[in-house]
Amino acid sequence: MPKGGNLFTFLPRLRWQLKATLLFILTALIVRLGWVIQHTVTSSDPVGKSTSANYLSKMASSNYASNLGYFEASISHNESNEPLILQSPVINMISYEEADEVTVGSTGVTSHEKMSEISKKTDPPQFENMKITSHPDDLTTSSSKTECKNTWSVEPRGKPASKIVFLKTHKAASSTVQNIFLRYALERNLTIALGFKELGSAQLGWPNFFRKDFAYPSTRGTYDVICHHMRYSENVATVMPSETIYITVIRDPIRVFQSYFFYYQLDRQFKIAGETDPLETFSKNPGLYEHKWEKVSPVRNVMMFDLGLKKEDMNDENMIEGKIKEIEQRFHIVLIAEYFDESLILMRDLLNWSNHDILYFKQNIMSNMTKRTISDATKHRLEQWNKADVMLYQYFNATFWANAKKFCLEKLAAEVNAFRSQLKQWQADCVLDVITGNKMYDPLYKTYNPNALSYRLRPGGHGNDTCVNLAKTEIAFTEEMLNRMKKTKSLNFDANYAITIKKGSPEEKELLKRLAAIKG
């Protein structure tokens, strides 16, 4: 008993101290139990679903993220163990929609790998009234203050990579990635492979397997960059140096197929456009329609088709798995469109580039189309129909997060948010507003599709080469590169594609058909 007190004053103090001690012990036990559970889950899931969920949790709690407003509202995880969703009311660079509609509303970014549960929305860009200003130095991999070790990069680093093959897949954010490589090539006077102008320089023989005679020959024998549509084959290696870095991008297969189906108006080709749900009608009997279009372009597994899987192997799991292994051996990184900025940071590190080199404005984004919902039954049928693409996506989604872990998830989260800050600044500095292609009269920024978004630059943006090139469309950029290489004589423009194509062959028929379409 304390001196100067009595039993009646001491007992209440003792009870209070005991309660405080018990509360402290209970809190410590709860924290310890939570650590054990987290440790158990993490150690049993090295590259699984929890990896992207944990990463997104870090992004949501990041000071960068809260300051920029990219993940403002909440983190939710419902009782049915559905995937982690981050809700944001503002423009979100992660949620990528190429050749798809832009939808006003909150953005949901899911970490789940199951194809049928991935559903993204993208808000229209919002640009502030700002003038062209100087930008801070790029934040590279050394900018992060986290302690985790980066095992993704190889030290010491060499020169920035300038020999690159980008396999441009259809409807998978590839036009935006292509703009990055075109800008890099333009700024450094690199030689890129271009198709014959009469057949469309933006195509390298697609949908045929790539052959070197589908492009103007390089006067020195090899190219620096290939980044236009082609169907991959090992012939690519014959026109590129041995140190070439191979890159491609993939996206949720159901979203790819949906976008591809309506972009190329397959519902009209199959005479089912009048149906209430043409995609559902197609999914119930896809084989009935395939033969009507397969000689023109693929009607299933669009990404695996671009990556070189033969049509006759589309149903063979062993052949699909073998092709996936070939892709893994050849391609140094496979970008994931749903994690676009994260992918670019890893790509930047691989290429030893700067943040400035990977700046982008979204390209080929559709504006005023109505979002089409897909029922669970239709999704399931389309997953079966696009089985090879589903297997491709599942495999490289896992390897992507394995690479992200090597880079360090905390570091990646910090760098992504720093990069997004730069993107936001460039958009504010360069862009006055965004309009549809049918309202754009400047050929540099006028989109091929009249419903696709075009960027109208601020007065100061027109005088800034970076702003101009970020907003430039593929058609205008390709034409500029073609004219530049005529001046530098980097390509042999006297070559004749008809010399190397056999008369009466499928290749000749396809090329003549394309030529007639262009001239018609």
Task: Kindly describe this structure.
- Residues 111-123 have a biased composition (Basic and acidic residues).
- Residues 107-153 are annotated as: Disordered.
- Keywords: Glycoprotein, Golgi apparatus, Membrane, Signal-anchor, Transferase, Transmembrane, Transmembrane helix.
- By secondary structure, the chain is of the alpha/beta class.
- It has one domain (141-148, 159-519).
- It is 42% helix and 7% strand.
- It contains 18 helices and 9 strands.
- It has helices at 7-43, 49-61, 63-68, 174-187, 253-263, 266-269, 278-284, 286-290, 302-306, 317-330, 340-351, 376-385, 387-407, 409-430, 459-462, 465-471, 474-488, 506-519; strands at 74-76, 85-88, 107-110, 164-167, 225-226, 245-250, 333-336, 431-436, 453-457.
- The protein has a 4-stranded parallel beta sheet with strand order 5-4-6-7, sandwiched between helices.
- α4 links the parallel β4 (164-167) and β5 (225-226).
- α7 (278-284) crosses α12, α11 (340-351) crosses α14 and α12 crosses α13.
- Mean pLDDT is 75; it is low at 6-11, 34-49 and 61-146.
Low-confidence regions: 6-11, 34-49, 61-146
The oligomeric state of the chains shown is single chain
State the domain count: 1
Strand order of the largest sheet: 5-4-6-7
- The end-to-end span amounts to 104 Å
The chain-level mean pLDDT equals 75
β-strand amount: 5-15%
Structural class: alpha/beta
> Portion of residues in helices?
40-55%
Succession of helices and strands:
HHHEEEEHEEHHHHHHEHHHHEEHHHH
Query: What Rg do the Cα atoms give?
Result: 26 Å
Specify the overall morphology: globular
Biggest sheet features: 4 strands, parallel
Number of strands: 9
Tell me the number of helical segments per DSSP (H or I, 4 or more residues long).
18
